[in-house]
Amino acid sequence: MAFINTKTKEVQVKLVFVGPGRGGKTTNLEYIFSRIRHRIESDMVSIKTQGDRTLFFDFLPFELGAIKGYNVKTQLYTVPGQVKYNATRKLVLKGVDGIVFVADSMVDRRENNINALNNLTENLKFYDIDIADLPLVFQYNKRDLATEGIPILDVESMEKDLNAQLKAPSFTASALKGDNVIPTVKKAISITLVGIRDKLL
Amino acid sequence: MSYILDQEQLDGLEEALTTDLMTLGIQSVILIDMAGNVIVNLDDGKVRHDVYSLAALAAGNFGAVSAMASIIGEEEFSLLFHKGKSENINFTKIMDDFLLVSIFGNDVSLGYLRLKIDEVIKKIKVLIEQTRST
Questions:
Q1: What distance in Å separates the CA atoms of residue A54 and residue B8, rounded to the nearest whole number?
Q2: What's the CA gap between B8 and A124, in Å, rounded?
Q3: Number of domain units in chain A
Q4: CATH of residue A43
Q5: Does A12 sit within 8 Å of B38, measured CB to CB?
Q6: Which residues of B touch A3 (CB under 8 A)?
Q7: Considering only A52-56, A195-199, B107-111, which range has the smallest mean pLDDT?
Q8: CB atoms B37 and A59 under 8 Å
Q9: Chain B residues inside the 8 Å CB shell of A43
Q10: In the list A20, A58, A97, B60, which could disulfide-bond A112, CB 3.0-4.6 Å?
């Protein structure tokens, strides 16, 4: 639920990184933070378990520039990927404007990707949002593992598993190395802003 | 979905929060929505909090506490207050979608602050009810 402030000429947009546990959502945000930290005032906020897994969310706010004279403040969140943390995952999705679904390319995570997407669909329904209506980008992460001999899913089968009906934009990426992380988030922001842009006076 | 507050509404919110709360000598007051967006941010000019992070955490914290209330069969907890050594923070829900975060020192009485918050909430409700959803 983007907030448009006509007084300060500011739009606040909430983009949430979703996906299976250990899929690289936090790594995405850490990479983005490493690239922009020199030009933002805020720190990245992380609420983690002792074992360094996301417990509640990671949060990274930054200014994007202006559209129609409005400053766009983008707020990136991740949700915890672990199945048991659904209550907190659902909370973070409140007021979401756009989604980056970070899928794990490892062959043995195929089922986890599908389950995480089904869980996202269910959680969005809780807020009366149809996933097909929400700006969404898929990121097929960990493509770099192929070079280490670890079996990964081919892009076609990931598209078939996750994106056959939604037909959202998708990127192959390596969050750890930073490959395609910025293009993924740029695309997610741009399609999220398309809907909001027309509402700006 | 998005929503828009116009200049008149925002001026009204700022005025109400300044008159009713800031004049009590509190450090800062932030009106946010439950998605973590900052609607109004006022301070005494002496503090410099990272309000966007604070708003995200406050919305998350409030959501978590509401979920806990529901698990134990309560509709919600009426008092949400964290006491520090010298700074304190109070959260007040406004309608279903907004949250007022007040940060204040030990020189301000919590009871009196809550009374004033009750008063300002009535004004805020009137102003927000004119909001345009798109």
A1: 41
A2: 33
A3: 1
A4: 3.40.50.300
A5: yes
A6: 2-3, 5, 33, 35, 37-39
A7: A195-199
A8: no
A9: 50, 53
A10: A20
Query: Between chains, do B34 and A14 touch, taking CB under 8 Å as contact?
Result: no
Q: Which residues of chain A does B39 touch, with a Cβ-Cβ cutoff of 8 Å? A: 3, 5
Cα end-to-end span (Å), chain B: 6
Rounded CA gap, A164 and A168, in Å? 9
On the CB side of B97, how many CA atoms lie within 13 Å of its CA?
18
Q: Domain range spanning residue A43?
A: 3-197
In a mutational test of the A interface, the residue from B6, B30, B37 whose CB has the highest number of chain A CBs within 10 Å is B37
Q: What angle do CA B124, B1, B90 make, to 5 degrees?
A: 35
Residues A131 and A111: their CA atoms lie apart, in Å, by: 19
Q: What is the C-alpha to C-alpha distance for residues A19 and A135, in angstroms, rounded to an integer?
A: 15
DSSP class per residue in A79-129: ---SGGGHHHHHHHTTT--EEEEEEE-BGGGHHHHHHHHHHHHHHHHHTT-
- What is the residue extent of each domain of chain B? 20-128
CB environment A154-188: b (16+ within 10 A), e (fewer): eeeebbeebbeebebbbbbbbbbebbbbeebbebb
CA B125 to chain centre: 12
Cβ contact (<8 Å) for A5 and B33? Answer: no
The pTM is what?
A: 0.89
ipTM: 0.79
pLDDT digits (tens, 9 = 90+) for B47-67: 888 999 999 999 999 989 998
Distance CA A147, CA A101 (A): 23
CATH number at B20-128: 3.30.450.30
Place of tokens 């000019």: B45
Cα separation, B69 vs A106, whole angstroms: 39
Dump pLDDT digits (tens) for A138-182. Answer: 999 999 999 999 999 999 999 999 999 999 999 999 999 999 999
> d(Cα A100, Cα A31) in Å, to the nearest integer?
15
Q: Do A94 and B34 touch (CB under 8 A)?
A: yes
